[in-house]
Amino acid sequence: MQYFHSVRLDEEKCLGCTNCIKRCPTQAIRVRDGKARIISNRCIDCGECIRVCPHHAKRAVTDPLSMMDDFRYKIALPAPTLYGQFNHLLDVDYVLTGLIDLGFDSVFEVSRAAELVSDYTRQLMRENKLKTPVISSACPAVVRLVKVRYPDLCGQVLPHLSPMQVAARLAKEEAIRQTGLAKEEIGCFFITPCPAKVTDIVSPIGISQSWVDGAFSIADIYKPLLEKMEQVKTPRPLSKSGIIGVSWANSGGESAALIREQYLAADGIENVITVLDQLEDERLTELDFIELNACPGGCVGGVLTVENPYVAKARIQRLRKYMPVSLNHVNGSVSPEILEWDGELEYTGGMQLSSDLVEAMRMMQEIDALEKMLPALDCGSCGAPSCRALAEDIVTGSGARLNDCIFILRKEASSLGVSLSDHPADRGRIHPTEEQNDDGKNAQ
User: Fold this and answer.
1) Residue 443, pLDDT score
2) Kindly report the CA angle at 439 between 438 and 444, in degrees rounded to 5?
3) SS3 state of residue 332
4) In angstroms, what is the C-alpha Rg of the chain?
């Protein structure tokens, strides 16, 4: 099976340190022969390795701005996180007008689609049509984390498309009606704060093909957009969303939009894993809704942004004062069906040791035996994130050896030293640990 990943490794910059393997939430990274290696079927493109790599050896692949030239009609899909990148911004219409001046033919705020998703979720929860606690599906990194680590939780993930996907479909359908152009002539470009959204464009969750044609990182578009914004005298009245949609940029924004008290909002991949572990252990059953964001602070903490996430969060909070509550609702003009997944979320994780059950059991026993030989320190010096992972790599033939563990290697070296000291040809020689007197004789 082929996997697309927006997170890539630059081997020339990689020095083989262990920062990334210890922070990867799915144990998708190994260090072999002095270089990091990403295990494709485990990576969820959360960008945590980009965040923690001191040598900038991990990067996210996005599209160049020149990609707009491939389409006759260009639509910008700005994530609400974009608004938090600019200082002294009191009106998002300056950002939207700047995007038009940058070369886009129209803009469709992703916050508009977020309000639709919130409205539809409220409706389904009122009608008790969702299994609680409901897990938000807004963060594709979290959804993929559930797919590879938490099979029992797949049925609790909200079966709705992300606001990015909804916005792209609505924007393109609207443009087709207005321009008469074919779908293929219209390009929708998401302005993204994180690599997980890029992956969701190429390999979308819940649908077979994305309506988004490309992704520009906030970091790449920030400077040219700022230059255009500074030239705007009177912005065009383009904004069509309110507090509920824009608040999705911050952790807790989606939850607050449901107008329910029994919810939990957690951000940062380590906190997300803690919550999912507790949910799997049925320790959070009193909750109605769980909002999880892989990035610290929510989407404002994405690795493709330019501003400190806490500064960006405060700016978005200030913007809210000048906005209506919400301007978008699911009704006759927007069919709820376009918000829904085509199918169910399926578990894709797990390491299949062998298609033969007997052989798989034998390999599992071998892994257990090897793990008991290891020091249980999970130091990462062997190039694997844990002693258990090293044992698995050895048994599955993934290029690992038992003496990759420095503690095993130290024991082998110590045993070899003792063996050499006991060699007949070595007897009678003075060893460095033995002291000598002035006559050159061994001290007693």
Assistant:
1) 46
2) 80
3) coil
4) 27
In which domain, by residue range, is 364 found?
A: 357-426
- Final residue of a domain: which of 309, 339, 369? 339
In which residue are the tokens 């469709």 written? Answer: 108
Same structural domain, 73 and 56 = no
Tell me the pTM: 0.90
Q: At a CB cut-off of 8 Å and minimum separation 6, what does 127 contact?
A: none
The verdict on 33 and 97 lying in the same domain is no
Distances (CA, A) of 310 to 84, 199, 239, 297: 10, 25, 24, 7
Q: Are residues 51 and 69 in the same domain?
A: no
Together in a domain, 365 and 312: no
User: For 215-225, how does the pLDDT look when each residue is reduced to its tens digit (9 = 90+)?
Assistant: 999 999 999 99
Whether the bond between 78 and the residue before it is cis, its omega within 30 degrees of 0, is no
The pLDDT of 417-438, averaged and rounded, is 55
CA dist 1 and 8 (Å) reads 18
Q: Residue 434 — pLDDT band, cuts 50, 70, 90?
A: very low
Residue 368 CA from chain centroid, whole number: 31
For residues 130 and 240, is the Cβ–Cβ distance under 8 A?
no
List pLDDT tens digits, range 335-354: 899 999 999 999 987 667 88
Residue 270 CB contacts under 8 Å (≥ 6 apart), including other chains: 25
Please check the confidence at residue 411 and state whether its pLDDT lies above 90: no
Instruction: Give pLDDT, residue 439.
Output: 53
Confidence of residue 277 (pLDDT cuts 50, 70, 90): very high
Which tokens hold the place of 51?
A: 């965040």
Give 419's pLDDT tier (boundaries 50, 70, 90).
low
Percentage of the residues of the chain whose pLDDT score is greater than 70: 93
Annotate 296-335 with b (16+ C-beta within 10 A) or e (fewer).
Answer: bbbbbbbbbbbbebeebbebbeebeeebeebbbebeeebe
Q: Residue 433 domain-assigned?
A: no
**C-alpha–C-alpha distance, residues 118 and 244, integer Å:** 8
Does 332 reside within a domain? yes
Decide if 312 contacts 81 (C-beta within 8 A).
yes
**Based on the structure, what is the number of domains in the chain?**
3
- What's the one-letter identity of residue 313? K
Which of 253, 248, 242, 261 is closest to 125 using CA atoms? 261
Assess whether pLDDT exceeds 70 at residue 371: yes
